[in-house]
Design a protein that fits this description.
The chain is an alpha+beta fold. The protein has 2 domains: 2-118 and 257-268, Roll (Diaminopimelate Epimerase, Chain A, domain 1), CATH 3.10.310.10; 125-252, Diaminopimelate Epimerase, Chain A, domain 1 (Roll). It contains 6 helices and 18 strands. It has helices spanning 32-42, 77-88, 133-137, 161-165, 171-174, 218-229, and strands at 2-8, 17-24, 46-52, 61-66, 71-72, 95-100, 103-109, 115-120, 125-127, 143-147, 153-157, 182-187, 197-203, 208-211, 233-238, 244-251, 254-259, 261-268. The chain has an 18-stranded mixed beta sheet that branches. It is globular and about 50 Å long. The protein starts with a strand and ends with a strand. The mean pLDDT is 96. The active site is at residue 46. Pfam families: PhzC-PhzF. One of its GO terms (cellular component) is cytoplasm. Keywords: Isomerase.
Amino acid sequence: MRIRIVDAFADRPFTGNPAGVVLLDSDPFPDDAHLQRIAAEVNLSETAFARRLPEGQEADWALRWFTPVTEVDMCGHATLATAHVLHTTGTAGGTVRFGARCGVLTAAAHADGSITLDFPTSDLTQVAAPDGLAEALHATPLGVHDTSRHIGDLLVELADERTVRSLAPDFAALARHSDRGVIATAAAEDPALGYDYVSRCFFPNVGIDEDPVTGSAHTALAPFWSARLGRAELTGLQASARTGLVRTAVRGDRTLLTGTAVTVIDGELLA
């Protein structure tokens, strides 16, 4: 079984978010326990498993994502990584349709090597800051939104970019406040640097204390900041240690996520 490690939302190795990508010949998928063991062994934020579907279906490939501890409903960076592998290996061309737990997702390849993902826009509902959230983040929220659709995070606006960059959360305490985790965000201090807003993502409930670059979170960040800034097309910087840029465009109930990827490991699973 061949596996690639791909840095997604990255233009060079060792940046962005690494994902495992496994293209399967089997039909149906191997049993869930085996997929979970592989994801635990790979031990990245997500490992994607894809298998080709018969012609005539609404999707070309079935796609699933596993963190080291659980399967998730939606994942952006591992979808970008999978599309990158399909295109760079000549397995697929043009636009690829993926059938996933969150519906049909598309990935369109461009001549410059970038890929645009078409994902469902997350719903945003303003809520009161839960008791203990500020203490868990070690920062005071300006506002909190629930992102119930598909991702189940709390989106927390903070005072400024410096506050987001300096966060050092209590992950055990943070895990009590949402289904998956917390997206912390603020406006860019200097948009002339090439990004409009910053974020960091903490997902202790699915075994990821901090996710390096999170495509799915941008289905909530994009509508949030587009409404604030009055522009449908923006660029977000996820300010993790690895960092990554996600170009976003809100199209009603769909959000487009554009980025590039780099394959860094190509090997064989022996178990």
